[in-house]
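Predict the 3D structure for this chain.
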Amino acid sequence: MTHPFEIELETVLPAGPEQVWEAVATGPGIDSWFMGRNHVEAREGGTATMDTGGHRGEALITAYEPGERFATRTPTAEDGRFMAFEYLIEGREGGSTVLRVVHSGLLGDDWQDEYDALRRGWPFHLGTLHQYLTHFPGRTALPVFAAAPTGDRSAQDVRTVLARALSLPTPVTVGARAHAEPADLPPLDGEVVWADDERFEIRTTDGIYTFHQGPGIALSFHHLFGPAPAGAETAWQRWLAAHLN
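Done. Predicted structure below.
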């Protein structure tokens, strides 16, 4: 049995409508704040793709109105599940923009847990978008994804290990300073700009770094705005595994 859902959020962003459009409706823009590596065909009826950790997702572009509205819809699965995303952009005086996001569709039998995860995740993603447009305007990022199994460790234990590896206090709080020197990567020096029960995010002068602990797995989603170090994804994969295995 499928269950309909809808999540609607609105945020004010420190950028004009054209900048917000580039961030939500182009591959390089989405790479800079959301998840995975993205490609967007610039037309209604085109395809938007996202590759994350070897998983490729596709969606049909159902609306493409530059500077105003961008919408996509995933194919309907055999059990009837699908997801639709709509971004509505409205410029405001003073160079800011109101972005309204509507995420809707049909979820499966485990809909409650999935819905709760989506509902909790969107404020974080919009916070990352705000960080991107505030601190890295006009730039695009290399997206970096890494994952490591955590076995029977508790989520709190995983969070403590990650915090310690990043020289952070526990509990992790917004404003705390982070430092790490991952092998084969530039040193990470930055400030925690988001912290909730599932993830925390660090902003440096050349990147946005997210560390997420889930059931049986730890994930990192990073957006690197500086010169892209060769093998960054592999190096972060090794870093996670070294601390959690």
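The chain has two domains: 3-135, 142-244.
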